[in-house]
Design a protein that fits this description.
Length: 474
């Protein structure tokens, strides 16, 4: 029996669809417990983009209660697909691009993986641009003449990009020591800003009394719908590749409890800091400042500015590598497992992050919330719908792990592609994107993640049941 298993394992290892980074996690690697998953979400949630997402809701016209409610509701909603996609990762130990082979085919999985990877590249570029802004502001405090240098932010962006590239070349373990302090550091910066807001605005009274700029419920709803969709879309990426992390879980219960406890609460609490501070900027400056780096640059104490911006820089580097490199590196590796390693995939991510022009994505809150977040949600929602339908409804949580790494197996479909999944993806994304070109159907785009998920789920189910697929048995 042992000899048979060893022979089968060698058979998988010789497959062009296999490499050590994509291999199922062994029992020795399954060491993550409840605390690890809670800490993971604290580390990923407490970041500048969480602050900016929440601050963007205030700049868009919401009061603090409306903004907090939107963030909490959105993150509670996205928790459900997050936990559903976590299950196969914890049960079978496979990463996201390998899991996608069950529904899209052993080659068709690259469609889902590349879509997810491109979004991660965009986030990598955004975080790197924010780091570049922090460096530029820091240099301006130390050398005031820097403020007159042309293209200073772009120069600092390139510098921070090179720092990220160096870390990837060294290996992700190179910054392991930062992971334990990144969340506390950014939390400290947030509390510093909150203390400043409280003191400068004259207490929480003026901050909390800032009214909504919406004069009617219909006006609020017009902003709320795409804002809620964007809040869900904020973690739509990780809701797909969460198996990259849950494959190391000791048990289903521990990973589920850790995520359920940490995701909605941490996102809401840190968002609250961004909401309160941005509300305070309306009272203090007469306008909402949603970028904390720009806000810190207005402080008059060089020591406070330097400490805060250095903290943001270090924490942003850590979050960027952990949240925006791990997944696309695996996804690009899935394209050509024998030639593209995790490190090579990380290098591709770096260059793609620049190509997606993050400075345009961060031009204003509308571009980020309604354009970037809402736009990619139209594609990732359908992918989530297809994968969840396939695993829980079509296959009833039964996968043949060996066949996920082999050509000609259960997931070969038509020359490696399940065109029914591709059709369902096109139907879901296409329906959501119709709202961009047909004004009367704009709600389809405003609810792009939800619309795409529902259409793709039902389309995939109908097509697969019509084909009478074989359900695997253990």
């Amino acid at each position: 029996m042992i000899a048979d298993k060893q022979l089968a394992h060698r058979h998988i290892e010789s497959s062009p669809l296999y490499n050590s980074d994509l291999a199922p996690a062994t029992s020795e690697r399954r060491t993550w417990g409840t605390y690890n998953y809670a800490a993971l979400w604290v580390s990923m949630s407490v970041n500048i983009l969480t602050y900016m997402l929440a601050a963007g809701l205030i700049q868009g016209g919401m009061n603090w209660k409306q903004a907090v409610g939107t963030v909490f509701l959105g993150n509670t909603i996205v928790l459900f697909p997050m936990l559903l996609n976590s299950h196969p990762g914890a049960r079978y130990g496979v990463p996201f691009p390998v899991l996608a082979r069950a529904s899209f085919g052993v080659l068709g999985a690259n469609v889902a993986a590349v879509l997810r990877a491109l979004v991660a590249c965009g986030w990598f570029g955004i975080q790197t641009w924010i780091g570049g802004e922090a460096i530029s502001s820091l240099v301006a405090v130390l050398a005031p003449g820097w403020g007159q240098v042309a293209h200073r932010t772009a120069i600092c962006f390139v510098a921070f990009w090179l720092i990220n590239l160096a870390v990837i070349l060294k290996g992700v373990d190179y910054i392991r020591f930062l992971q334990g302090i990144s969340a506390p550091v950014l939390l400290g910066v947030g509390l510093l800003l909150l203390a400043w807001a409280y003191r400068t605005a004259g207490g929480f009274g003026p901050i909390l009394s800032a009214p909504s700029r919406f004069n009617s419920y219909s006006e609020l709803l017009k902003f709320l719908v795409p804002a809620l969709n964007a809040t869900v879309g904020f973690w739509a990426t990780v809701s797909l590749n969460i198996p990259d992390f849950t494959r190391f879980a000791r048990s289903q219960q521990q990973q589920a409890i850790g995520q359920a406890l940490a995701l909605p609460t941490t996102m809401t609490l840190y968002s609250l800091i961004g909401i309160l501070v941005t509300s305070a900027t309306v009272v203090i400056y007469g306008t909402a400042i949603w970028d904390p780096v720009q806000l810190l640059s207005r402080f008059h104490s060089p020591v406070a500015v330097v400490i805060s911006l250095v903290a943001i820089l270090l924490a942003t580097l850590n979050v960027n590598i952990g949240a925006n490199v791990v997944s696309p590196a695996n996804d690009f590796s899935n394209l050509w497992p024998r030639k593209i390693s995790f490190r090579t995939g990380g290098i591709i991510t770096c260059f793609m992050g620049v190509a997606l022009m993050p400075w345009k994505l961060l031009a204003n809150y509308k571009t980020m919330i309604f354009g970037w977040l809402g736009g990619y949600a139209a594609f990732l929602g359908p992918v989530a719908g297809i994968m969840i339908c396939d695993y829980f409804v079509i296959r009833r949580r039964i996968l043949l792990v060996d066949d996920l790494y082999l050509r000609g197996g259960a997931y070969e479909y038509s020359h490696g592609f399940n065109w029914l999944a591709v059709a369902a993806l096109a139907a879901g994304a296409g329906t959501a994107l119709v709202g961009l070109v047909v004004p009367s159907l704009r709600p389809l785009y405003d609810y792009s993640w939800f619309v795409g998920f529902a259409i793709a789920f039902t389309t995939y189910y109908a097509l697969m049941k019509f084909q009478h697929p074989r359900v695997e048995r253990a």
